[in-house]
Design goal:
Keywords: Oxidoreductase, tRNA processing. It is built from eight helices and 15 strands. The longest helix has 19 residues.
Length: 314
């Protein structure tokens, strides 16, 4: 097993261990693997989402530390995932509602046929070497994430494609001939998986020097001292924490339940913000009928919380 990324648990930082993982591998038996994967997670009180496909596994799970260790041990015991790596952080409350092991066509959806990171991929760059690469004037830095993610944090000087979906990325590349103006392309994403396919696609398009941040933003924020960091803002994560910052500390963002956009503390002070109903991003696009429905859902969520339960619509 290579370089499994385990983070010592800081005192009082959180009671749920979060593990983000992915692994590209030929996985022909993926359909038969779904039920035992779901079962091992359920048996260990682990929640989250794991996607499995013919090309491997991808997802994020959370739970009690012993439960997460048991699931990871189960995965490492599979010959296809013996070399699987993961990244760890902590959450002060359970960041997922349920456990979902899902069968998919792709473990990260780009929508381009025959992109195989096991065949061709960019050059990995460790977090300790990333600053030097992106500070090089011969390097063009590209954020491969979507607009709602880049809105709350990016590396300094990075190009934002303003995509709504990762499926939009290939067309963005094809429509921007000026990407070839610099000899080096440096790409990054949250945990590294999107860059596996994005750098493979760039190589297929004829770009030669293509690099990507190993372990993604999460590994950079874990390892890079804040005083040396070239990262500005917070990193969007796909769970109830919404964002993390340097040291993988939970950020201050919440999520609008109407439009799913991340909100800063300043956003929540806007007169257009109504918790669970509307925010500065969607107040003009939602009808009064929408708002009435959201208010009813929010009341149900608050009642469930007072009963010590969690509403399924939260």
């Amino acid at each position: 097993m290579t370089d499994t990324l385990q983070t010592p648990r800081p005192e009082a930082q959180g009671q749920f261990l979060v593990a983000a993982l992915y692994h590209f591998v030929s996985f022909e038996r993926f359909a038969a693997f779904r039920e035992p994967l779901q079962a091992i997670c359920d048996d260990n009180q682990v929640k989250g989402t794991l996607l499995i496909a013919h090309e491997g596994i991808n997802g994020t799970i959370a739970g009690p530390e012993d439960g997460i260790r048991a699931v990871l041990a189960f995965l490492h015991a599979q010959p296809e995932f013996a070399n699987l790596e993961h990244k760890e952080s902590w959450a002060s409350s359970m960041p997922f509602l349920r456990m979902k092991a899902r069968l998919k066509k792709e473990i990260v959806t780009m929508g381009v046929e025959d992109i195989d990171p096991n065949r061709i991929v960019g050059t990995y760059v460790a977090p300790k070497d990333w600053n030097a690469l992106i500070s090089d004037p011969d390097t063009l830095v590209i954020d491969t994430r979507n607009d709602y993610e880049t809105a709350i944090g990016m590396f300094r000087g990075a190009v934002d494609p303003n995509t709504k979906s990762f499926r939009d990325f290939p067309d963005w590349v094809k429509n921007n001939a000026d990407l070839a103006a610099k000899p080096k392309i440096a790409m990054y994403c949250t945990g590294g998986i999107r860059c596996e396919k994005a750098t493979a696609f760039m190589k297929e398009q004829g770009f030669d020097e293509v690099y990507h941040l190993k372990g993604g933003i999460l590994k950079y924020l874990e390892e890079m001292p804040e005083e040396e960091s070239l990262w500005d803002g917070a990193c969007f994560v796909f769970d109830d924490r919404v964002s993390v910052t340097h040291g993988l500390k939970e950020g201050e963002h919440t999520l609008c339940h109407a439009c799913r956009q991340p909100l800063t503390p300043e956003d929540r002070l806007s007169p257009h913000h109504e918790h669970g109903v509307a925010c500065i991003h969607c107040h003009e696009t939602r009808t009064e009928e929408d708002r009435l429905r959201y208010r009813q859902r929010q009341r149900q969520m608050e009642l469930a919380k007072r009963r010590g339960e969690r509403h399924l619509g939260s």
